[in-house]
Amino acid sequence: MEDDGDPDNSFAWGNALMMQGRFAEAVLCYEQCLRLRPDFAECQSNLGMAMAEQGELTDAVDRYRQALAINPDLADASYNLGNALRELGRWDDAESSYRKALRSNPDWPEAHTNLGLISVEQGNYEAAVASHQTALRLNPVFAEAHNNLGIVLERQAKIDECRYCFDRAIEHQPEFAQAHCNRAQIWLLEGDFARGWREYEWRWQVPGFRPIPAPEWDGARLEGEPILLHAEQGFGDALQFIRYASLVRDIGGRVIVSSPPELSRLLATSPGVERVVTDGDEVPPVRCHAGLMSLPRIFGTSLTSIPADVPYLFADPELVAARHRELRAVPGFTIGIAWQGSVRHPNDRQRSIPLDRFLSLSRIPGVRLVSLQKGYEGGSVYPTALGDFMDTASVMMNLDLIITVDTAVAHLAGSLGLPVWVALPFCSEWRWLETREDSPWYPTMRLFRQTRPGEWGDVFENMANELARKG
Q1: pLDDT single digits (tens) 431-454
Q2: How far is C-alpha 141 from the geometric centre of its chain's CA atoms?
Q3: Sheet holding 438-439, edge to edge
Q4: Total-model pTM
Q5: Domain at 226-298, CATH from 3.30.110, 3.30.70, 3.40.50, 1.20.144
Q6: What is the pLDDT of residues 92-125, one digit of tens each?
Q7: Do the domains at 7-172 and 226-298 have one common CATH topology?
Q8: How many CA atoms lie within 13 A of 217 on its CB side?
Q9: pLDDT at residue 470 above 80?
Q10: Class of 7-172 in CATH
Q11: What is the architecture of the domain spanning 317-470?
Q12: What are the pLDDT digits (tens) for 312-336?
């Protein structure tokens, strides 16, 4: 727009464009406004919002701070600053910003529930529950606060209570996709697969999931036609559910798998997979598609019908032989260990474990630890140079046991049919069910669960006792 010399007009245009989702154009209007009136705090704050909507979080933080330097009492700027800092993982700074916003407006439900999200990241579940409950006292039909409270209660293993919260979130906002997914995972945790798989289809409505431009497969026979199976989520999910490729082949499908590059060599070894495509590869024409995590629903998988024949993935024999020559330098009972999952995982604070905990196992006579942690360069554990998951698989095939946190390493070991122990937090993911020490997905797996939130001592004491008996 032309510079008409009226900052209020530019500000109003920016606000209108924001409401239409035209964020880049809104930025231009707000910048024009600020050239005419640099001390316009509300405009600085709104410019930060437009930048944040485009993913420019660091620039947004700068704008919010400029707004607060002009007007320290501008509650919207403090609240939005908290949101940006939360997205950047700066929990303590975000907490301070939310508290400042609440000092200006104590009856702000959104600020209370977002403060609760920060408390979860800081590991303070009691404070998180209190914040979400305050938000709900202020607004009893606030679906997002019901959902957020449910997540905290789930982390505390209060399953009935968290399910109630997800139910209320959906009651007040029937199209709330994330709440549907959260409820689905509770049903799956309880072994109610019939309801859980159906409900989990709501994930396609969650922001960030990309639909595939082809008809979705309904389970009908394919009569030799190509189908695309896509690894839609994390590495562990792909490793767990690629097992269904052989079932798709058995009813006539020519299976093409879309995979991250890190998994492509390994997934290509799964029975039933004809071809793997990765980022940048041209996907050949297909009749239909299915997300890997939709296949249990399509095949009607129940607890008693999980396809659990292992191995269903295979390491390259030449790589296995090369690793054997390398690992001959490590005598004794060799245990591959992984102690850290992806820091982007929403529950990583609870599932990852300090390396020192694992080192206690090395004091058992005859035990030698081998790192399966990518990027580890040595110290108290024998390091291994790891590239993709095929590299990791070739190392695993030369070990006596794998012990890992709940990460892709667990699924890799299970899919290879290797003995694997998994250290689980007090409230584990749905795939491990509630109280079992074994996994119906992986016959060679054993689960060691925390008996108290955050306490790993009993887990490693139990593992050490088991290892001592093996010796």
Answers
A1: 999 999 999 999 999 999 999 888
A2: 27
A3: 367-371, 333-338, 401-405, 420-424, 442-449, 438-439
A4: 0.92
A5: 3.40.50
A6: 999 999 999 999 999 999 999 999 999 999 989 9
A7: no
A8: 30
A9: no
A10: mainly alpha
A11: 3-Layer(aba) Sandwich (3.40)
A12: 999 999 999 999 999 988 899 999 9
CA distances for 167 relative to 111, 118, 130, 132, 149, angstroms: 23, 23, 19, 16, 12
- The residue written with tokens 């290509």 in the block is 268
Residues 183-227 have pLDDT tens digits of 999 999 999 999 999 999 999 999 877 667 779 999 999 999 999
Q: What angle do CA 131, 135, 136 make, to 5 degrees?
A: 120
Closest of 347, 374, 373 to residue 358, by C-alpha = 373
**Cα→Cα distances 77→25, 88, 423, 448, Å:** 21, 16, 42, 46
Helices (H) and strands (E) in the chain, counts: 22, 10
Q: Edge-to-edge, what's the strand order for the sheet holding 288-291? A: 273-277, 254-258, 226-230, 288-291
Distances in Å between the Cα of 397 and the Cα atoms of 314, 440, 461 are 9, 22, 26
The two structure tokens encoding residue 158: 């209060």
Tokens describing residue 220: 């009908």
Q: Which pLDDT score, from 0 to 100, does residue 1 have?
A: 47
* Residues 338, 409 contacting (CB under 8 angstroms): yes
CA dihedral 148, 23, 90, 101 (to 10 degrees): -70
118, containing H or E segment: helix 109-121
Query: Domain segments of the chain: what residues?
Result: 7-172, 226-298, 317-470
What is the CB neighbour count within 10 angstroms for residue 244?
24
